[in-house]
Structure prediction request, 133 residues.
Amino acid sequence: MNYWLIKSEPFKYSWDQLNADKSTFWDGVRNYGARIHLRAMKKGDQAFFYHSNEGKEIVGIVKIIKEAYQDPTTEADWSVVDVAPVKPLKKTVTLETIKKTAALQKMQLVVNSRLSVQPVTKEEWEIVLSLAK
DNA sequence: GCCAACGTTGGC
DNA sequence: GCCAACGTTGGC
Prediction:
C-alpha cells in the first residue's frame, strides 16, 4: 500500500464535488514529475485530498480505484487515474499546521509545494491522521 | 495582486 | 547540451 497526496484548487474541483460525483478521473496533470507518481499508483492506494490556494488544507482521503490510463481530455502522452472518496478528515489539517510539525518538514508539500501529485510516507500519513483527530 | 520557485521551451 | 526567457503555480 502506497500513500499519496493530490491537490486541487477547490474552485476548480473540490472535495464536495468529488463526493457529489462519487468518483472522478483525475485529469489535468501536466507535469512530468507528477506524471511519474500518477503512473506509480496502484489500485487500493490511498491519497490525501488537498485544497490549494483556497483553504490550503488536507480535507479528506481518497482511494485509487483505477490505475493510470490515457488522459481522455488530450491526445498527448498524459495519464489519469480514477479516484473515489473514502472519508473526510474529522479535522482538516492545514498547511500551517504541517509547517509547524517537525516530523512533517520533509513532506513534498513543504519542500516543493508546486508538485500536484506527491508521494507521502507511511510515517507522514499516520502523523497527519493523528493531527486530524 | 504580487512574487518566488520551479518547469519548460527554444535559440545558440 | 547549456542557459536565458518565459509561463505557471501557489503561498502570502
